[in-house]
Amino acid sequence: MSFAPISLDELNAKAALLSRVDKKYIVDGPTFEALSQRLEGDFLALEIDGRRLFTYHTVYFDCDELSLYEDHLKGRRRRFKCRSRHYVETGRCVFEIKLKGLRGRTLKHQLQIDERHHGVMTEQAQEFASRILRETYGRGLDRDLQPVLPMTYQRLTLAAKEGAQRVTCDFSLDFGSAGLADGHAIIESKSESGRGKVDRALRTLGVRPISCSKYCAGIGMTREVRANPFNHLLSRYYVARPAAALPA
Q1: What is the rounded CA–CA span in Å between residue 198 and residue 36?
Q2: Per-residue DSSP letters for 31-96?
Q3: Under DSSP, is residue 102 helix (H, G, I), strand (E, B) or coil?
Q4: How many degrees, rounded to 5, is the angle at CA 243 between CA 241 and CA 248?
Q5: CA 32 to CA 20: how far, in whole Å?
Q6: Domains (ranges, CATH) in the chain?
Q7: What's the pTM?
Q8: Could you read off the pLDDT of 16-63 as tens digits, one per residue?
Q9: Which of 41, 23, 2 is nearest to 194 (CA)?
């Protein structure tokens, strides 16, 4: 791949896209290479200190009954996810709440947090989530959340040279006891309209969007839960991993 570089400040100024339309895809290695060739002339790659592939450690929060997962499983319009994210190479940590807005738009709100609070539902995070929910849905956070799913993956981020379009390419997604099958990547298109260049390119390659977040896939693979809408996707693209053997 020979994408020209873009800095983090330039990326955020050009395509922060905290209100956007997301589309997700899963592709194999040859399809990713073909997609990259189609995008190279129109996209730039995020580069920090000469690095383009970055490690993310994310912890998702839910209640004991996994009601946030159930809301996504049932496709409820007013649904949301809460997570904390550690950008491993830079040490930066944020708490995030992602909500579904009008016409299927994704709304993302971030709170900078200390690294020691990564993976912890602090009082500050609880108050932040409640405020965002009241402003968006007219109700606060009415349930106690706790960490339920950690995951790691590596991410390449692309931004279109023209217009506000962003693409993330996630590799080596690992939930501990399960993960994305080797040789596959999750592509997420983030644009103002949901009809970005990457969506058109993937369509020409015969790839259609999927409706299953990394959170739903992780819960479906690691918990004894109902996952009917995702079963075909999980069996095709995700694998269980044997537990590591204890030393003798």
Answers
A1: 9
A2: HHHHHHHHHTTTEEEE-BTTB--EEEEEEEEE-TT-HHHHHHHTT-SS-EEEEEEEETTTTEEEEE
A3: helix
A4: 145
A5: 23
A6: 17-239 (2.40.320.10)
A7: 0.91
A8: 555 668 899 999 999 999 999 999 999 999 999 999 999 999 999 999
A9: 23
